[in-house]
Amino acid sequence: MKALKSILAMALILTASHLFGQTNYVLNKDYKLTINGGSNLHDWTENVEKAAANASVTWNSNGTLTLNGLTVIVYVQSIKSSEGGVMNGKTYKALKSDSHPTITFTLTSPLQISGGGTTVSATGNLNIAGVTRGVTIRAKVNSIANNNISIEGVVPLRMSEFGIDPPNALFGALKVSNDISIQFKTNLVKS
């Protein structure tokens, strides 16, 4: 019985030290998240005005960090086109915002990050318009002042991979390309 109590006490201490070693982070308001694409007439850009992120980070004794978990949420109706309101409406319709109001990325494997300027391949699930696909995102990660974390990169995607028909306008005269890229520059700060 005494041995069992000792084992349970040790397990509790190890579990508690693991949990308390993790720090939660959120997306700072200074993020930049854009969707870039083209059409048969010209290139276009859409800016994301409302997004959120939650991350669980362990700072290791050797100065590296482990990104244990990350979830990023983009609110579809906060996506604003450089082309104005008509394109906004077409974007919301294509992304099925009435039934799927968010786009979500969830990290599926922890990332080991060493020093400044580490380039990583983050694997996770990306859900767009109700369709979830496994993706690998290449990003540059830096730890910056006050243990904040900056992450930036570009993600190339094809709309059709998520069951999205590229929008068109002007009675089909303007046809949007299937290929897009999501460009992001973010800072995660302690919550």
From TrEMBL:
Residues 32-189 form the Lipid/polyisoprenoid-binding YceI-like domain. Transmembrane segments: none annotated. Keywords: Signal. Pfam families: YceI (PF04264). InterPro entries: Lipid/polyisoprenoid-bd_YceI, TTHA0802/YceI-like_sf. Residues 1-21 form the signal peptide. The keyword Signal applies. SUPFAM superfamilies: YceI-like. The keyword Signal applies. This is YceI family protein. It comes from Hanamia caeni. The lineage of its organism: Bacteria, Pseudomonadati, Bacteroidota, Chitinophagia, Chitinophagales.
